[in-house]
Design the sequence.
């Protein structure tokens, strides 16, 4: 294991309060994408291991030790978990940068603090989940509702922000009294396992949080398990469709946060320099491995060349390096597969689509590095403008008629996020109202907050995370009628 990885890191699965290698013999390596070297290996869970984990979660739920715990006590345990994570923030950030590749500035400045914020935010909700009373047209009856937990929830997390997105799901699931089985992405399991150590230290009861590791087969077994009441998944639209189909058949609750192809609309009066800065961040954060990455830039034709040239110059100036290197602006992508996919889209954009590729030096180093590629003169029908790439490939599209902007921005299967750049706040808000996306930012890079609802439209997903929306997503409403006669 690399020297900068915590020597005592657990790599086993965690089921019913115990660390276990499971019943199988298979293992999966996890790599440092900055070097291509194996960090360690984790077990490949079997169907029997998934069954054991779900049954442990079900016992913990049915015992009512967690769901029936006083809300203030449950909140205190979540606050304790947040404190433990914050106390070890540096080691978590370094582990995330090693296992996922994101620069330390992102892991220490965004990923870990955001996870701490979510734990504290939902700890606050644990004591504030209420039902309603309503007057009925039935005499001598008192009517009220209760919000109750769902039961065992499967949390299936992606590899782009492993710790942060795990906590987006874990914090509200626990705050509302559910128990969980977590399946981290096989590429990036290490911070999930490390957080599980803190779950135990915080005193959260055995069986409330369980972790199984492995590939897609493990996720499928978890989704199909009859005792799983809800599936919360973040990942590709293709896999999301499969999960939705299975969940629909089994009538499970489901939340899906899937792919995106976010449009960035730059009007004629926009501050181009500010738009370039914000779009570089929005397009290249985590090397473009962001579902909401700004990837389609619609620019007034009169300013297209200026914007494209400045965007390309800014992208070319960014320093590639290992996530732990002090001067890194862009880390590697997560895997050789992801690197090869991004480079194939660069080839398609240049050789098949025929777009103009701005000057781009080859990437260097042993890791999975991809230098940003900026294309200009892109048209709506080109593959680079239509398909989710999940890498640092940016497309600049000119427009002549502002009236065509909304239709072009909405001409996509996706609808996760969008951004508008304009000095005219009226124009910006009118555009924001008409773009079909779950989140629209105006004159800013992509920010998220625990209190702000997050999720997509169309093929970008079902349901919402964060804010009160996540409380709704992890609870169900029960009606209680009382005869007063």
Sequence:
């Amino acid at each position: 294991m690399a020297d900068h990885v915590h020597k005592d890191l657990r790599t086993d699965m965690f089921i019913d309060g115990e660390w276990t290698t499971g019943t199988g013999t298979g293992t999966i390596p996890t790599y440092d994408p900055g070097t291509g070297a194996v960090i360690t290996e984790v077990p490949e869970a079997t169907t029997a291991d998934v069954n054991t984990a779900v049954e442990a979660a079900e016992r913990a739920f049915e015992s009512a030790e967690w769901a029936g715990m006083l809300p203030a006590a449950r909140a205190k345990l979540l606050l304790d978990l947040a404190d433990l994570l914050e106390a070890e923030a540096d080691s978590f950030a370094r582990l995330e940068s090693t296992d996922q590749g994101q620069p330390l500035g992102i892991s220490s400045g965004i990923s870990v603090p955001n996870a701490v914020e979510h734990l504290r935010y939902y700890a606050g909700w644990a004591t504030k989940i209420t039902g309603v009373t309503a007057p009925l047209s039935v005499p001598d009856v008192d009517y009220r509702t209760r919000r109750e937990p769902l039961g065992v929830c499967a949390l299936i997390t992606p590899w782009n922000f492993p710790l942060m997105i795990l906590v987006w799901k874990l914090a509200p699931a626990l705050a509302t009294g559910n128990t969980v089985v977590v399946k981290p992405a096989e590429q990036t399991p290490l911070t999930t396992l490390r957080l599980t150590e803190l779950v135990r230290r915080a005193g959260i009861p055995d069986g409330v949080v369980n972790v199984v590791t492995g590939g897609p087969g493990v996720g499928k077994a978890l989704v199909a398990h009859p005792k799983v009441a809800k599936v919360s998944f973040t990942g590709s639209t293709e896999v999301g469709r499969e999960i939705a189909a299975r969940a629909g058949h089994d009538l499970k609750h489901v939340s899906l946060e899937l792919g995106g192809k976010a449009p960035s609309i730059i009007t004629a009066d926009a501050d181009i320099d500010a738009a370039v800065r914000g779009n570089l961040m929005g397009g290249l954060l985590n090397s473009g491995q962001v579902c909401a990455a700004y990837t389609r830039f619609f620019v007034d034709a009169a300013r297209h060349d200026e914007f494209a040239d400045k965007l390309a110059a800014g992208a070319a100036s960014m320093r590639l390096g290992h996530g732990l290197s002090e001067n890194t602006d862009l880390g590697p992508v997560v895997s050789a597969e992801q690197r090869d996919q991004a480079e194939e889209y660069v080839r398609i954009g240049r050789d098949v689509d025929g777009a103009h590729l701005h000057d781009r030096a080859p990437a260097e180093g042993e890791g999975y590095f991809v230098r940003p590629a900026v294309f200009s003169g892109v048209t709506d029908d080109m593959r680079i403008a239509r398909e989710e790439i999940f890498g640092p490939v940016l497309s600049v599209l000119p427009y002549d008629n502002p009236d065509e902007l909304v239709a072009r921005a909405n001409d996509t299967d996706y609808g996760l996020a969008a951004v508008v750049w304009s000095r005219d706040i009226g124009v910006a808000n009118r555009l924001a109202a008409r773009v079909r996306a779950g989140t629209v930012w105006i004159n800013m890079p992509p920010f998220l907050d625990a209190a702000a609802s997050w999720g997509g439209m169309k093929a970008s997903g079902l349901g919402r995370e964060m804010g009160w929306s996540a409380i709704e997503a992890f609870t169900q409403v029960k009606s209680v009628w009382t005869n007063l006669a």
Remarks:
- The longest strand covers residues 141-149.
- The chain has a mean pLDDT of 96.
- The chain has 15 helices and 21 strands.
- The chain has two domains: 13-258+460-483, 262-450.
